[in-house]
Write a structure and sequence with these properties.
Chain A is mostly helical and 661 residues long. Chain A is built from 26 helices and 4 strands. The longest helix of chain B is centred in the middle third of the chain and has 14 residues. Classes of the chains: A mainly alpha (661), B alpha/beta (254). At the A-B interface, helix 1, helix 22, helix 23 and helix 26 of A face strand 5, helix 2, helix 3 and helix 6 of B. Bound molecules: adenosine-5'-diphosphate and magnesium ion. The site of magnesium ion (MG) has 4 residues of chain B, from helix 1.
């Protein structure tokens, strides 16, 4: 017997049998607790989906699905009332297509600029800056669109009103940019270095490498970015509501970009609050939500497919390798040409807006001609031209962001004062301050986080670390993903119908907190799961191999490196909850309230809602609106700055971590 | 000849990944305080087998094992066995060094802490002893509080061995511990294994036959999920019973 063992063996031999399980009550309780969190999250998620579908299908039953979807008129309060969703669906699609035409070329150029052209320093500034575009609350975009953009369109194009399809598309295009940029950029950055080196190795120029090797290799991710950007545009409510004029008509002619238009989300935002429960109108709004939901579902599925494709290309799984390569290659070509054609059409469309049809066709012809000439030109020359175009596009994005920030800051600063922050509003918001709105927003967000953070984090720990990987987890993940991309107005609708009306809580702080909580729950689950998964399996095995229990392994080995990711996700969720209007529109927010003592069952004021009402309903409140918008913007920028810092710090440690073999 | 003591007896082990059977009817006996090597072409199931010995395969959802594995007269695969205890007594070192992203000290102290050791002096002692046993102490004694990620690959692997030793296991499993290392680091680990067998039973997977010949007392040759031959290393290398073993040893395939 080796000597080092002797003392241990003596006193432990009897009860050290491996067949006697160590008393691990805490382990057992923790697992059950995590399980409960997971089940609650999953139940909530499926309940939301189920509830919406049930209410929505009633409309399909009552009106007939065909009549509902293709009915040409939406007249909810006329006699007779008519519920034809067709103009709204067309409106949604038109606004989205317009937005994509604007944002696809810009976004891809921006992504190429960041990942391939910009020097490292510029890149590390640009990335968070572009992400900030995503953080600006949609009501602030709407405000900017209403005050600046629609006015500018009206004057420049000599139209009776600037509230139009075009205005909606431009604003949505800007809002979709950050999604397109960041997802494309990720895809481009994940193209293996060897591909590029191989291309340089045979004497290709940088542009040839980018256009012939890098972009084609990243095409799945770029496609996904476009689809996700579309999802963002389709689901947007407040900004669209504020700039499109909201007439439920199909533009005539169909190319009339100055026509007002109405989207599905806009309709929900406008009509939900005034609809009697149980009426056909009420059901048909849910029917609209289901249509919206279906659109987003399709988008998510397609984007998900594209995303898995990237992974397969870069980390070919041994089994179906050849097969998937074959498929993706032919698809890649189709996608490439589709993007090219979309790009050209987009240019033509923009020409058409600025000039007229003949002009735009002529321009298009010239562009194609230039393209052909370029092909004959020397590679260096082509590169110069391409880089110039890309750099200009990136500059344009910065310029847009700068205009928005500058306009709101410069006009908001004079209003911003101590008393503006600490006083109650007076003269229906024109004078006084926004104190109760600030407090209300803080209450709403704090409640949402207190609800969603523990549930989401604990639940996803269960799902990633304990649950057996299989059909069930796949279905759960799919549900989480879909709810993650679900438009915020749909959550508002659910909160209103279920919490406010069905449970009869009424419009109240708690209804708003829960609705916002439902909205950020899938995001928190998703980001936590991603963070946990990014911790290598080998570390878990290292810990288990020395006889650590599962929970101890999670607690000491898995969570610490995952924490920055979880924190970043949480902070971004807070940022989103701060700025969201649609979910609290009919669940929690009121425009004026005297007392700020928190009562869960009373409505509250909130910054985004305040800004919305001031902008749309209170003439002569421009100063107060700018002040409110600035406060909102500052809050969100601070949160984004925190998230960026956490991530930067994490990158550093992560780099240190990867210093191993 | 005196009776040999077995550290581990594996009887009729069959293993499936989902529908695919990866190991067929494996039986072998690991002898105490000896080094046992498992060799065979890659994909033949060496890692899969060694990961059964401390039930590490439990972490793979679709993996199913049907076996009797006797350790200290008890069946590791018995339904009421405590995997945590098993793994504490049967340590493991992995193919790729996997130090925790913590300091060198914390990497070693994590194990004893996990098993309830709280006293600082005691922990200090264990850290020193384990690092010495892993022939790493002299190289790192001045930077115990530095991140383990800053160590070279070979140092990281010895740190992982020290980490395994710190919980005083009876047996140590090593899955190709040198495959990610350069020749000098490999030599150091091999010397270390030779030291370790005084106190521990070692099972090592390697696809480097010279290594198996150099360091092991017993060798098992695996092919396509089956244990083709098992016996004293000398015999396996010089005079194998099976033609397949001979072919492999002669470098005719694999
Ligand atoms: N996690 C797993 N899931 C499914 N199959 C696996 C898994 N791990 C290994 N296998 C399969 O089991 C077989 C043996 O693999 P492995 O034990 O890693 O071989 P070796 O270590 O000898 O190279 C291989 O065919 C491999 O594809
Ligand atoms: Mg192996």
């Amino acid at each position: 017997m080796p000597k080092r063992n002797s003392s241990r063996i003596k006193n432990k031999e009897l009860h050290d049998s491996i067949l006697v399980k160590k008393n691990s009550i805490s382990e057992f309780i923790i697992e059950k607790l995590l399980f409960i969190a997971a089940v609650s999250s999953v139940v909530i998620i499926f309940f939301i989906i189920f509830f919406l579908l049930r209410e929505g299908f009633r409309a399909f039953e009552l009106l007939g699905i065909f009549n509902f979807v293709f009915g040409p008129e939406w007249v909810p309060v006329g006699t007779p009332e008519r519920f034809g969703a067709f103009p709204l669906i067309v409106g949604t699609l038109l606004v989205t297509v317009g937005a994509m035409i604007f944002s696809i070329p810009l976004g891809i150029a921006g992504a190429i600029f960041i990942s391939e052209i910009a020097p490292f320093k510029l890149k590390s500034i640009l990335k968070p800056t572009f992400e900030l575009l995503a953080g600006i609350p949609s009501v602030v975009y709407g405000f900017f669109g209403l005050v600046i953009l629609t006015d500018w369109l009206r004057v420049t194009f000599n139209q009776p009103s600037g509230d139009s399809w075009l205005a909606g598309s431009i604003i949505l295009g800007i809002m979709a940019l950050p999604t397109i940029i960041s997802v494309s950029e990720d895809a481009i950055a994940s193209v293996p270095k060897e591909f590029k080196e191989a291309s340089y190795g045979i004497g290709a120029t940088k542009w040839q490498t980018i256009s012939k090797v890098v972009v084609p290799a990243a095409i799945s991710g770029i496609t996904a970015s476009i689809i996700l950007g579309m999802g963002r545009a389709i689901g947007e409510t407040m900004a669209v509501l504020m700039v499109t004029g909201n007439a439920p008509i199909i533009p005539s002619p169909i190319t009339n970009v100055f026509s007002p238009i109405r989207t599905i989300t806009g309709t929900l935002g406008i009509e939900m609050a005034e609809t009697p429960v149980g009426s056909i109108h009420y059901s048909s709004l849910f029917g609209l939500a289901v249509i919206l939901f279906a659109m987003v579902l399709i988008i998510n599925i397609v984007a998900g497919r594209a995303m898995t494709k990237i992974k397969e290309i870069h980390h070919p799984s041994s089994r179906k390798k050849r097969f998937s390569f074959k498929i993706s290659e032919s698809q890649n070509r189709v996608i490439k040409y589709a993007i090219l054609i979309a790009f050209l059409l987009g240019l033509a469309f923009e020409m058409y807006i600025w000039f007229n049809l003949t002009y735009s066709i002529a321009m298009l012809g010239m562009i194609i001609l230039t393209y052909i000439i370029l092909k004959k030109l020397s590679a260096n020359y082509t590169q110069k031209i391409a880089f110039t175009i890309i750099t200009l596009s990136a500059a344009l994005i910065i310029f847009i962001l700068a205009i928005i920030l500058f306009d709101i800051t410069s006009k908001g600063l004079p209003t911003l004062s101590w008393s503006f922050l600490t006083q109650y509003p007076s003269d229906i918001g024109r004078a006084g301050g926004i104190f109760p709105a600030i407090v209300g927003t803080l209450y709403l967000v704090a409640g949402a986080i207190a609800f969603a953070l523990p549930l989401g984090v604990l639940g996803s720990i269960y799902l990633t670390e304990y649950a057996k990987e299989g059909k069930t987890t796949k279905i759960i993940r799919a549900a989480v993903d879909n709810l993650n991309g679900t438009p915020s107005i749909v959550f508002g609708l659910f909160g209103f119908a279920f919490l406010v009306l069905y449970l009869n809580i009424g419009i109240s702080l708690i209804a708003g907190q829960l609705t916002l909580g439902f909205m950020i729950l899938p995001t928190i689950i998703r980001t936590t799961e991603e963070a946990l998964r990014s911790v290598p399996r080998s570390l878990r095995e290292g810990s288990l191999a020395i006889g650590a229990t599962k929970w101890r392994t999670i607690q000491k080995i898995v969570l610490p490196p995952a924490l920055p990711g979880i924190i970043t996700g949480t902070v971004l969720s807070i940022g989103r909850a701060v700025g969201e209007t649609a979910p609290i529109l009919f669940t929690a927010a009121v425009f004026s309230k005297r007392s700020i003592t928190p009562s869960l069952f009373e409505p509250v004021m909130a910054l985004p809602y305040h800004l919305y009402v001031l902008t749309t309903n209170v003439p002569g409140s421009r100063e107060a609106s700018y002040g409110t918008a600035l406060v909102l913007l500052i809050m969100v920028i601070i949160l984004y700055a925190i998230a960026t810092l956490v991530r930067l710090k994490y990158w550093k440690t992560a780099r240190m971590g990867s210093g191993s073999l | 000849m005196k009776k040999k003591k077995y550290a581990l007896e594996c009887k009729n082990l069959n293993l499936w990944y989902g529908e695919n059977q990866a190991l067929y009817d494996i039986s072998m006996k690991v002898i105490k305080n000896k080094v046992t090597a498992l060799i065979g072409p890659s994909g033949c199931g060496k890692s899969t087998l060694i990961r059964c010995f401390n039930r590490m395969n439990d972490t793979i959802d679709e993996c199913k094992v049907d076996a009797e594995l006797i350790f200290n007269n008890e069946n590791i695969y018995s339904s009421n066995a405590d995997v945590v205890k098993i793994r504490r007594k049967i340590g493991m070192v992995f193919q790729k060094p996997n130090p925790f992203p913590k300091s060198i000290y914390e990497n070693i102290a994590y194990g004893p802490r996990t098993h309830g050791e709280r006293k600082k002096e005691k922990l200090d002692k264990i850290v020193k002893k384990s690092l010495e046993a892993a022939a790493l102490w002299d190289e790192v004694k001045d930077r115990l509080q530095k991140s383990a990620m800053g160590l070279s690959g070979g140092q990281q692997q010895r740190l992982c061995i020290a980490r395994a030793l710190a919980v005083e296991p009876d047996m140590i499993l090593m899955d190709e511990p040198c495959s990610a290392l350069d020749p000098i680091a490999t030599t150091k680990i091999e010397d270390l294994i030779d030291e370790l067998k005084k106190d521990y039973t070692v099972v090592i997977v390697t696809h480097n036959m010279q290594q198996a010949a150099r360091i092991s007392d017993y060798t098992g040759f695996m092919y396509l999920g089956k244990l083709i031959e098992f016996g004293e290393t000398r015999k396996i290398f010089e005079n194998p019973d099976e033609e397949l073993t001979e072919k492999y040893i002669m470098g005719r395939f694999g």
